[in-house]
Specification:
Blueprint (H helix, E strand, L loop, with lengths): L3 E6 L4 H12 L2 E7 L2 H15 L4 E5 L5 H14 L5 E4 L17 H16 L1 H6 L3 E5 L22 H23 L5 E6 L13 H10 L6 H4 L1 H8 L10 E3 L2 E2 L9 H14 L6
Parallel strand pairs: 1-2, 1-4, 2-3, 4-5, 5-6, 6-7
Antiparallel strand pairs: 7-8
Helix pairs in contact: 1-2, 3-4, 4-6, 6-10
Bound molecules: NADP nicotinamide-adenine-dinucleotide phosphate.
InterPro entries: NAD(P)-bd_dom_sf, SDR_fam
Protein name: NAD(P)-dependent dehydrogenase, short-chain alcohol dehydrogenase family
Keywords: Oxidoreductase
Length: 280
């Protein structure tokens, strides 16, 4: 029988796939939340073949579609009593402004809001599992500012600023979770995985794509990029670091703005409002 139950987003490629594989190899039951079922099933089979662990499951979940997130959380809540690890790993940047099914700017929707709804919807399971919640952020959060006056980048869109803000929100969200649910046994962290040679740059265009291509020889592998996520999922006694940001398996400094408790709370309140009709 598996020792732990892990739910992970964005495991169809890159860092998420490497993380899911490593945790399956360590006897976790792993639930892959994917927007593309065909890709998800292929990865599931790959993980089973590689690790011999048959407790790998695929659940449809498009993080940029709140109804899809709601359905994924409801499905998990029917199947499982508890979850021990939730890895909010999926993420993407967009060279041009795009809008999600619910009308939110895509970077905000896919990197933050979908994970916010997923996490809150799974909270009863997470509390029962005394879970660790791991948000895969980025050093890119240091380029972000919490632009509450134009969260959806309607007035002006910059892919770098939108990505930086969404990754800053991953840090905020981990801090808020630690603060609000720490006394219920929940641990929450955010992390930078390193600069990883994954499919991440494939969706970028123009100058950003060229920059990423030039950086490729200096990038680490997805397996190396997964190391901090795996560490946070499995290392004993991380209680005293609850809410912290990690890099290379160690607590790391965030941007000063990432410590702004009022901004963390403001994001929480706004996010709650945005998903208010959506929590299962
Ligand atoms: N690569 C880096 O250098 C780097 C650096 C810092 C932080 N990060 C962060 O690391 C995380 C993983 O990135 P990666 O490098 O492994 O990139 P990747 O190979 O492009 O993987 C991204 C994953 O997210 C999934 N995804 C994207 N949008 C989604 C949505 N709307 N709903 C559900 N799943 C969605 C993708 O699914 P599909 O297969 O369906 O596209 C894929 O599985 C991201 O949060 C990223 O911001 C990466």
């Amino acid at each position: 029988m598996p020792i732990k139950t892990t739910v992970i987003t964005g495991a169809t490629s890159g860092i998420g796939k490497a993380t899911a594989t490593a945790l399956a190899a360590q006897d976790h039951a792993v639930y892959l939340l994917v927007r593309n079922i065909i890709r998800g099933e292929a990865v599931k089979q790959e993980i089973i073949d590689k690790t011999g662990n048959k407790h790998v499951y695929v659940i449809k979940c498009d993080l940029a579609d709140l109804q899809s997130v709601r359905e994924a959380a409801a499905g998990l809540s029917q199947k499982l009593m508890s979850v021990n690890t939730l890895i909010n790993n999926a993420g993407a940047g967009f060279s041009e402004r795009q809008v999600s099914k619910d009308g939110f700017e895509m970077t905000f929707a896919a990197n933050h809001l979908g994970h916010f709804l997923l996490t809150l919807s799974l909270m009863p399971l997470l509390e029962r599992g005394q879970a660790r919640i791991i948000n895969v952020s980025s050093e890119g959060h240091k380029l972000g500012k919490p632009n509450f006056d134009d969260l959806q980048s309607v007035q002006k869109y910059s892919s770098v600023k939108a990505y930086g803000m969404a990754k800053l929100f991953n840090v905020y969200f981990a801090r808020s979770l630690a603060q609000k649910f720490g006394d219920k046994g929940i641990l929450a962290f955010s992390l930078h995985p390193g600069v990883v040679n994954s499919s991440f740059a494939d969706k970028l265009r123009g100058f950003e794509k060229i920059l990423m291509k030039l950086a490729r020889p200096f990038m680490i592998t997805s397996e190396q990029g997964a190391e901090t996520s795996i560490y946070l999922a499995t290392a004993p006694q991380l209680d005293k670091f609850n809410g912290s940001y990690f890099k290379k398996k160690k607590v790391a400094k965030t941007a000063v703005i990432a410590k702004d408790v009022a901004a963390q709370e403001k994001l929480w309140q706004i996010s709650e409002k945005l998903i208010s009709k959506s929590v299962v």
